[in-house]
Give the backbone structure.
Amino acid sequence: MQSKISISNLDFYYGKTQALFDISMEIPERQVVAFIGPSGCGKSTFLRTLNRMNDTIPIARAEGVVKIDGENIYAPGTDVVALRRKVGMVFQKSNPFPKSIFENVAYGIRINGLHKNKADLQERVEKALRDAALLNEVKDRLNSSAFGLSGGQQQRLCIARALAVQPEVILMDEPASALDPIATQKIEELVVELKKQYSIVIVTHNMQQASRVSDKTAFFMLGKLIEFNPTQKMFTNPDERLTEDYITGRFG
Amino acid sequence: MENRLLDQQLDLLRDKILLLGGTTEAALHRAMQSLTERDSELAKKVMDEDRIIDQMELEIDRLSVEILALQKPAAHDLRFVISVAKITPILERIADHAGSIAEAAIKINQEPQLKNYIDMPLMAEIAAEMLRTALDAFTSEDAAVSREVILRDQKIDECYHRVFDELIRIMINNPQAATCAAHLMFVAKHLERIGDYVKDICELNVYLREAAFIKHSPNQ
Ligand SMILES: Nc1ncnc2c1ncn2[C@@H]1O[C@H](COP(=O)(O)OP(=O)(O)OP(=O)(O)O)[C@@H](O)[C@H]1O
Ligand SMILES: [Mg+2]
């Protein structure tokens, strides 16, 4: 399996406090990797190091190497805007802009100048909505406000927005934690569908969700990567005692 | 740390399968006793108690499904529930064989006694010992002992062939003993099958411990 992202000896600090310790892992291409671990163990921090989203935090500092397709994204001169286009992100709380459904998706296409003309823009927006399994539900009201959508629909809109700029990697931070079981199932089906084209990393507190959607699972504790294994192995016979305790709810 | 809800249910499941194991062991022991001591009353009891064992099997099935559905166990917990769910019908079948031995004993006890049952008691002893060791190894999750018990199944098979040959010889040399010998042939076959089932239990013990499926693999 080819690596899409290769992380070596990554340390991460918020000011003087170290949040990630010597993390090395290979994130495979066109698979789903789940990050699990107790609250505060550094899942979101680590996820944000993969598209340098932490750069927006003044006191944050990363040391180590993160290569995407062989290029170190922390090398001087890296085009961070291009990086974030290539590595899209979906957050726990859906965060649509106070605009129409159409404009929410069109925005990224516009600022990146991806479209040839108006018809092309329309087509790209619809394709992104279709790929996010939302088009059928919104095609008659593309021009109404995104805030009129349900929570699950808003989350899929955010996924459509991420897809519209043609990323290669999608990072998802607890994308279904605020959703009901049906909306959650839709997101999960979507994740499994999307891995045909994208490499996906998903942070989740839901063990079943991790075991349902992911090919590999990484377990973190106190900023350290404890175990990274195929999901099937992780949930039937983990190598580490700590992993076993965590996934079986025996964690103190 | 503990997971109180899940641990309580797993403990309950463990208690239930150990009770089923003990009851099955006792059924086998008493079935053989009814044969060697020509005690048809005891044989009838063994046959009657089969219902209790069926009931135990049902309860374990229900509890296993409930734990899987509601607690969604993982890792060792998952392997434990799966092992229990797979060992339970094996024990039930062993108990069925014990019942069949008891049934045969009633018929054999109506015939004049054969001088000696040749290797039969030895065979029964090996089977009972294998079963007990297999159940202990399940409790202690001892893969090494389980693998050793799997090898012992060969001894039962060897015994079975000796018993078979001897019973054929008896039938030929002493036609009056033919009925009795024929029933004994079935008893031997039941014991031989029990050996196979114990082997299956031991393979599940190894799964429980090592998450390895060794059934159908030549070098376990
Ligand atoms: N902006 C920040 N400034 C300072 N410290 C931070 C910041 N963000 C996170 N941290 C700290 O870094 C550590 C890791 O936090 P992070 O949010 O990555 O954990 P997490 O695994 O995503 O937790 P959760 O499951 O609760 O979302 C925590 O101790 C947290 O307090
Ligand atoms: Mg987080």
